[in-house]
Design brief:
The chain has about 260 residues and is an all-alpha fold. The chain has 9 helices and no strands.
């Protein structure tokens, strides 16, 4: 297993390479994380193809296709024709400084998780009680969302108390601070990231299970109106998670450790 010190160096190297590469790489020579950072609409293609841009954003498109057994030319053609319409705000997150990006993640994505999880979980339970007899899959959906959402709220609070506190600290340090002190804090940050990554990956796997249970959020015939509303709420929640993980792993952490 790679040492934390070596891992920090690797993260810094990738960040420097990405910064230089933005001027020299074109099209799909970039990593999947860089492609999504340049145009988040393309993330939909990666999600459909099963390409992990959230936690393996440093992979080249070619490598990601080889790992997934995908045809590179087909993926490139799909990316070229990816829709430009998006409900996302037009913001260049890459240009933001680290502190401002952290504030944005906390106030937008963390608050979204903490505010919406209890509401959606309760709503899912109500729909399960109403429609569960005819559609038992909705009972499982409510169970998976509740368990996953509770874990995610806990992880979010832990991130703010530990990981983000350290990130704010190293961001506040000036040039006179000892290099050793910054390196030690960077080791702590990488250790926390590495510790939580399997848990966050499991959360995305849970949402893949929900997608399978709901046939990609297709509302069955002869169900209550609330059924369709629930699917819309869970899909929006899932979409927010992908953007949240992308912002942290492909933009925030490389900026903070670079």
């Amino acid at each position: 297993m790679m040492s934390i010190g070596n891992e920090i160096s690797l993260v810094m190297d990738r960040n420097r390479q990405a910064s230089v590469g933005n001027n020299h790489t074109t099209g799909y020579e970039k990593t999947v994380g860089e492609i999504v950072t340049g145009d988040y609409n393309k993330s939909a293609i990666f999600r459909e193809a099963g390409i992990d841009f959230c936690f393996n954003g440093s992979r080249s498109l070619k490598e990601a296709c080889e790992i997934g057994g995908l045809d590179l030319d087909d993926i490139i053609n799909r990316l070229k024709t990816a829709g430009k319409t998006s409900n996302l705000p037009k913001m260049d997150f890459q240009c933001w400084n680290t502190r401002f990006l952290m504030r944005y993640i906390e106030q937008v994505h963390h608050q979204y998780i903490l505010s919406n999880t209890p509401f959606v979980a309760e709503f899912a339970q109500k729909v399960a009680r109403t429609d569960g007899a005819r559609h038992p899959e909705i009972v499982k959906v409510a169970e998976v969302f509740s368990n996953t959402g509770n874990q995610l709220m806990l992880y979010t609070q832990q991130d703010e108390q530990s990981l983000f506190t350290l990130l704010y600290h190293i961001e506040a340090e000036n040039e006179d601070d000892a290099v050793t002190e910054r390196f030690e804090k960077s080791k702590e940050i990488v250790a926390l990231i590495r510790k939580m990554e399997p848990e966050y990956k499991r959360i995305l796997e849970d949402f893949k299970q929900i997608r399978k249970l709901t046939d990609n959020y297709q509302v069955p015939k002869y169900t209550t109106v609330a059924y369709g509303i629930l699917f819309k709420l869970i899909k929006e929640y899932e979409d927010d998670l992908y953007l949240y993980f992308h912002l942290k792993n492909n933009i925030l952490f490389p900026k903070a450790l670079g």
